[in-house]
Amino acid sequence: MHPARHLMAALLCLSPGCRAPAEAPRATVRTGIDVLEAEGFRTLAGKRVGLITNPTGVTADLRSTVDVLHKAPGVRLAALYGPEHGIRGDIHAGDPVGDSTDPPTGLPVHSLYGKTRKPTPAMLEGIDVLVFDIQDIGARSYTFISTMAVAMEAAAEQGIAFVVLDRPNPLTGNRIEGSPLDLKFKSFVGHLPIPYLHGLTVGELARMTNACGWLAGGARCDLTVVPMRGWKRSMWFDQTGLPWVPTSPHIPHADTAMFYAATGIMGELQVIGEGVGYTLPFEVVGADFIDPFAFAADLNGRRPAGVIFRPLFYKPYYIRDVGTRYGGVQLHITDRDRVDLTGIQFHVMDAVRRMHPDRPLFGTKRDDMFDKVCGTDRIRRMFLEGRNISEILAFWHAGREAFRQARRPYLLYN
Q1: Which of 123, 177, 200, 203 has its CA at 20 to 30 Å from residue 140's CA atom?
Q2: Residue 119's CB: how many other CB atoms inside 10 A?
């Protein structure tokens, strides 16, 4: 390679978005499944096990938790339970998941995202312990933590133990954004009274859910968390040395979790595209009526910490018209420790309402879903009332410091 190209490659890999190091770092963190295996599976010894998992349930060397438990001495893996996207990750977002048989193991797979989202007594017949091993992305609207909560309820009702094999929060264990959910807006995309970005691992969240009476009827299950080793709250996922397995079709990389937090709520309105259907899901925003240069100038003129907006044109795959293209911006996170991730989309919405008052953000059948994901209808109403973006952000983040204190007894790390 020409020396100048060597220099360019080196400079590119200094970019926050560089995703393909020449050699992946060795794992410094051991997740719950690795710890469980190292301890000889003693937590599950002699038990008939039901496993709630998906493709992200892997060891540090990428062996499936399904296969590991299926072969584990003294453990009888009896059934599998599939959340949104299915056990093998082959189902599109929001599409129902059916019951099936897992070809590699021959085990029955019960759907937790079809006719029911909560394990029924029939599904749990003969099960001694339910195990949860799924990589979360740290956002309240991601349905895997809702699946965990209703499965904990089912375990409590049936007198079955519940074990969480812990995994990192890819956005660190410190980042908390958004107000806790108003339970009037409780749904499967907002099941627990936590901020939008909660800063907890799934194990910590299970502990808090169980202790705070958030399960139906205030029930508590017989909960065990197998904690990680080596994880620190300040760690972003790329600092763990662990491999990233896509958590769903549009979260292909660990840093996509940041962009999901930055644009996913806004994307529910389906007025402004958030990059789903393009090569950069959640990393670009735009529409066919936006001038990217004026739009980028407006957003950058606000001088938000830790992000730069680059103008671009792009075309989602679902746009069939040859002459149609989207104008918008690509988000470049320049300081991930300082950026207000969830605030980005509200700035984008504010820019659209000011620059394109003829393009209403609300008034479609998607308003209800937006409110559910926000965990309140107040954000939508504040936009409709013409409130200043600073007022909107102040309301959005109200209550997060109180939550930071409330969660302290349930933390497992640092």
Answers
A1: 123
A2: 25
If asked whether residues 230 and 273 sit together in one domain, one would say no
- Shared-domain flag, residues 280 and 223: no
pLDDT tens-digit map of 116-173: 999 999 999 999 999 999 999 999 999 999 999 999 999 999 999 999 999 999 999 9
Shared domain for 166 and 117, answered yes or no, is yes
Please report, to the nearest 10 degrees, the dihedral formed by the alpha carbons of residues 60, 61, 65, 68 taken in order: -130
Which residue in 414, 370, 63 sits closest to 190, CA to CA? 370
**Which of 137, 56, 43 is closest to 89 using CA atoms?**
56
- Cα dist. 156→109, 129, 256, 376 in Å? 21, 11, 34, 29
Sheet order of strands, 307-314 included: 284-287, 326-333, 307-314
Could you tell me if residue 336 is inside a domain?
yes
Distances (CA, A) of 289 to 158, 312, 313, 357: 54, 13, 11, 12
Q: 109 and 233 share a domain?
A: yes
Give domain status of residue 312, yes or no: yes
Output 116 or 14, whichever has higher pLDDT.
116
Domain boundary among 212, 242, 272: 242
Average pLDDT over residues 181-201: 98
* pTM higher than the cut 0.85: yes
Q: Which has the closest alpha carbon to 331: 235, 397, 255, 252?
A: 255
List all residues 6 or more positions away from 95 whose beta carbon is below 8 Å from its beta carbon. none
Q: Is the pLDDT of residue 3 over 50?
A: no
Q: Which of 330, 333, 331 is nearest to 314 (CA)?
A: 330
Number of domains in the chain: 2
